[in-house]
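Why show two proteins at once? Because comparison is the fastest way to build intuition. When a single record is shown, students tend to memorize it. When two are placed side by side, the eye starts asking what differs. So, the first record is below.
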Amino acid sequence: MTITLYDLPSKLAVKGWSPNPWKARLALNIKGLPYKTIWVELPDVERVCKDIGAKPTGTWRTGTPLYTLPIIHDDTNNAVISDSFEIARYLDDQYPDTIPMFPKGSHTLQAAFKEAHERVALVHLYPLMGVTMVRQLNAPSEHYYRTKKGPSSGATFEEVDLKGEARVEQWKKVREGHEIIASWFSKNEEGQFVMGKDVSFADTMLVAWLRVVGLIYGEESDEWKAVLSWQDGWWARYLKQFDQYLAVV
């Protein structure tokens, strides 16, 4: 059995900078499945996807197919799966003796959690990621990201980057969003995962995004230290549970 994970590289020591591939990587690591990584710069993603038969995951504004990573290729049955959510579902089905990412009956609830996470926290985080993230990319991907995924206004990432009090207020919204999410955990009767004592794909959503914040800002940055201090260190304790699953291979 050989599983290949297609991911996006960067200047970072661990290379991986994109939250969605991190979700797939976490799922593979939690399940203990052996795999290898092929790194693909952003301008090459569409070509690579077409070469291996990966399906598009959306459309551009022009209506043309949009190809994204992560993708896995499992040579056990020559399966090629796009999208981190679908990858986790496939791994559950194909390798039922591993830790499930979708415990029985949880698919709908986890899909709803994904939308809630977006509305409560990520929508506030996005404006704080642009310029910090793009500067971590290798030259081909940085150029692609700036030209293809830059602000819709036509301004540069630097020009729309929040500064001063506006930036402070934006981080406050991110913190408040995570306070709401942390309050959901308090409803569990036991355990410290989204689904109580059982880890699930919903946890990879939270961990992937916060992992990327720590990577692109740096572990010694004021921003990351602030994240770890939220809710009296609750998020630091939550993330600590996943240290064993952060290996990049």
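Second record. Ask yourself what differs from the first in the token line.
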Amino acid sequence: MAGNTVERRFENLFDGLFSRAFSSKLTPLQIGRKLLHTIDAERTPDAQGRRVVPNRYVVQMSAYDREGFADLEPALIQELTQAVREYVRQEGYHAEGKVRVALRTNPDVRKGRVEVTTQNAEVTEPPSVAHEVLEPETTTVAPVAVPPVEPKPAASTFDLPPAVLTLPTGQRVSIYEGHYVVGRNLECDIVISDGNVSRQHAELVCAAGDVIVRDRASTNGTKVNGVAVHGDQLLQHGDVINFGTAQVRFEKS
């Protein structure tokens, strides 16, 4: 069975590199099983009789578990994506465009647990070549082919989060719609392991594409571009945020 083949891939993944390198209570095998169950649960028949499944899968976990994968997150995402694509192909499912997997922190998910949400990102097709025939009164001109215009890729909330933070370690954290607590505590949504950062230092709120930062009565304060934050501070592309002495760069997508 295809499911057994792909599940063995996850088992090998757990027994190999990741079993030695991460401290999360969550394992790749748990994530993999949840992904496979989600794919099966989301399949629907279309008018052509195909079994259609979503092409985007967002794996949601606690901040603690995600921190355990921090150093290996790109490799983990790559392995999960390849395994999911293999499962979709072997089961004969149909997905529009490339199937992709992403990780996201969700404060509502408990340690050791995982949730998977799905969506169908639109796949844009390039426009067909247009032809224009010019017919003056006395002269017949051969059809002129107008070169196709390269379409601008459609924005996807999956591929392009509203904003990204670059932490002192160089790790990049995607900011989607929602509320994020920043601090030293491993229970925080965004963890900064720095003695000058309070356990729950500040919070970020992303809504309608805008992101604000507010301090949570931290010991060493929060600054944006060197100016202390009092109340809600709207962030702009390129802003530098200091949580205590830990410097974080903010970028809008």
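One difference worth noting in the second protein: The radius of gyration is 23 Å.
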